[in-house]
Amino acid sequence: MFPSFLYLLALANSVYACGGDGHTHTHARRSSTPSGLTPPTRPLQWGDINFIHTTDTHGWLLGHQKTSFPEPNYSGDLGDFASFVSHMKEIALQKDVDLLLIDSGDLHDGTGLSDGFPPGGVDAHDSNQFLKQLPYDVMAIGNHELYIYANTLDMHTNFAPALNGRYLSSNVNITTVDANNNTIDVPVGDRFAKFTTRKGKKVTAFGVLFDFTGNDHNTTVQKVEDMVKEEWFTSEIAEEPDFFLLVGHMPVQRDNWPLVFNAIRAVHPETPIFIFGGHTHIRDCVQLDNRSMSLESGRYMETVGWMSANVSSSTSSDPISFSRRYLDTNRLTYQFHTGTSDSTSSSSSHYPRSNSHSGHDDHDHDHDQGQGHSHSSSPLPSFDTPLGLQITQGLNALSDHFNLSFQFGIAPEDFTINQVAYPSSNSILTLMGAQVLPFSLTVSRSNFSSTSSSSSSSSSNSSDFVTIEGTNTTVPPFLMLTNSGSLRFDIYAGPFTKNDQLTASPFADAFNYIPGVEWGVALGVRGALDEAGEARRIRKRDGGLGGLGGLGNELEKREEELYRRGDVRRRYMDWMASQVRRHDTPDTSDEDEDLTLGYVTTDSCPGIGDDTLHTPLRSFDIPDFISSDDPFAIGGTPISQATASSSSSSSSVNSTSSSNPILTNSTLVDLVFVDFIQDQLLGILNDVQAQTSGVDKTKKKEFGAGDVKTYSTLLSTEVLGVWAIGNWS
């Protein structure tokens, strides 16, 4: 017999205390460079001003620890990165040039290090202590710092002061109280920074967030178009620096950087402008004119961005010679560019540290400035620095403190978001919609027996109850919905730990439901939610649901609203798919077959941006929403059976047991959904009902927030763990 939900919950809660639970605790530690990595293709090109850039780290400070490629490409942890920065700073001193370290925001929401804190903690507070140890010159706020007020307050109170005026939030305020308990509305960090580099270059810097609308109460995001009209902004750009440094959580293309750029150009037509963006998780570069460059450096500590330029040698009107590179974040990359090794040793062929800048870096260069490019047999310096080792040790201690290695079960295979077609059996979307949600949420309904009983009478007759296979749980029939963007990362075969659970599903969303929704209407909601994302236009559907009619405006606005609330999945997926399209051409070289999987970047800047060559991962389109209505569902009825023919029911794969009812379009069901999409779902639900009812809308129930109830005490961060305990143990 399947274990009770209370037993599952006790096991899941035991992740906060090691020992005595009967489950395995694995403590994976990486001691050196993983095997099978491809080294960089050429040295970095240096200028008189140089930048190292990170963005969208989302708590990935212990690196990517799985062995399936492309994960080893990104296996370096924050301690390794700190050692890399230390060596690069030393090289900059030797070359007598400037090197600035930049970050474009989103430190929260992504792994157990940021999100696995015990009750009473604040997201990313502990993991951010390690970021504060790096010598960042400028950091900017991201939207993930704003979803929860406590996180924003922590950044304002505890993080920003550590950067001494260099944590920038030019258009983001927080409402709090001062020392006299007066309410004040102030920037989370600082609006701008003016400073002088080691080599004497004067810098004016801003930190800009895109037009984000998903921020919590008592936080304010000013639109970019309004910010550039502010008196303080026009005043601060009046004096010409040696260059402007625009750092912000906004993609370098298809957003509002041109508004900031043009405002500066109107005053200073030829002053160099360096832009470092983020948010869409891609590698990208563009030049808005020949005296500027804009760089976006990926996500999840998979990419370190590099930009360099020679500004001192150019006149005020000459084009500036820029270079940019996207580095894979592993020790082999770091050692290649710093001329170091895992331990001090003798080598007859040292990795070159760097070349001086001499144009775009799409070709190798033979010369350097006498720093680091050596082919002697002298010992290579050790890569690890005291600070780097200290950070790695501290991160591992934090992982132990959060019990992130607690093992829920063993994943039998890789489950990926978009490397396989949906609904393939090894798609994590199929796993979540067809198995995890029906299993975990309905089992947890044992805590809600009274609620379930009361809802049963409003949802369906007792004969319509659904029995979930593999359990002793019987619930009213349901359709479960969640947005695919809630799944942020793949699951890899092997131990499935607390950290893996939070990595795959880091957002602590609740599951609500509306009882008494007709099955045909529920299916219509599911179809309507996908219309804009799948086809990019309004379509008509078959199956008696009628045309979308009044849904048009809802669907046209949906994608833009999701983006403004922070959903970047569509842009990232489009970027991944474009890599495959460019690669799958008749002129693809046979040499590509020997490359490891990884990013293959094509951007709008001259030359080759990727530091290491790869072959792209397969990428398939995925739906914006997933549900329990596909042919692999454990409970409910597949979407193809909306007409409830008994013959089609018998052909379903792993759907309902033989004792389960056959649903018709008029069967009343529980419409279960993640609370993140509640407002959107209610509007579409009522519109679909009006389109499909065939009767006057005034005679049908208008669903509102008062009809929404709590379906389960489980959060979206917990359902995978419950599934793994019950099915992967």
Automatic annotation (TrEMBL):
<dbReference type="InterPro" id="IPR029052">
    <property type="entry name" value="Metallo-depent_PP-like"/>
</dbReference>
<dbReference type="InterPro" id="IPR036907">
    <property type="entry name" value="5'-Nucleotdase_C_sf"/>
</dbReference>
<feature type="region of interest" description="Disordered">
    <location>
        <begin position="581"/>
        <end position="601"/>
    </location>
</feature>
<dbReference type="InterPro" id="IPR041823">
    <property type="entry name" value="YHR202W_N"/>
</dbReference>
<dbReference type="GO" id="GO:0009166">
    <property type="term" value="P:nucleotide catabolic process"/>
</dbReference>
<feature type="compositionally biased region" description="Basic and acidic residues">
    <location>
        <begin position="358"/>
        <end position="370"/>
    </location>
</feature>
<dbReference type="GO" id="GO:0016787">
    <property type="term" value="F:hydrolase activity"/>
</dbReference>
<feature type="compositionally biased region" description="Low complexity">
    <location>
        <begin position="640"/>
        <end position="660"/>
    </location>
</feature>
<dbReference type="GO" id="GO:0005829">
    <property type="term" value="C:cytosol"/>
</dbReference>
<feature type="compositionally biased region" description="Low complexity">
    <location>
        <begin position="337"/>
        <end position="357"/>
    </location>
</feature>
<dbReference type="InterPro" id="IPR053828">
    <property type="entry name" value="Nucleosidase_C"/>
</dbReference>
<protein>
    <submittedName>
        <fullName>Metallo-dependent phosphatase</fullName>
    </submittedName>
</protein>
<keyword id="KW-0732">Signal</keyword>
<dbReference type="Pfam" id="PF21953">
    <property type="entry name" value="NadN_nucleosid_C"/>
</dbReference>
<feature type="domain" description="Putative 5'-nucleotidase C-terminal">
    <location>
        <begin position="414"/>
        <end position="682"/>
    </location>
</feature>
<feature type="signal peptide">
    <location>
        <begin position="1"/>
        <end position="17"/>
    </location>
</feature>
<dbReference type="GO" id="GO:0005576">
    <property type="term" value="C:extracellular region"/>
</dbReference>
<feature type="region of interest" description="Disordered">
    <location>
        <begin position="636"/>
        <end position="660"/>
    </location>
</feature>
<feature type="region of interest" description="Disordered">
    <location>
        <begin position="337"/>
        <end position="385"/>
    </location>
</feature>
<feature type="region of interest" description="Disordered">
    <location>
        <begin position="22"/>
        <end position="43"/>
    </location>
</feature>
<dbReference type="InterPro" id="IPR006179">
    <property type="entry name" value="5_nucleotidase/apyrase"/>
</dbReference>
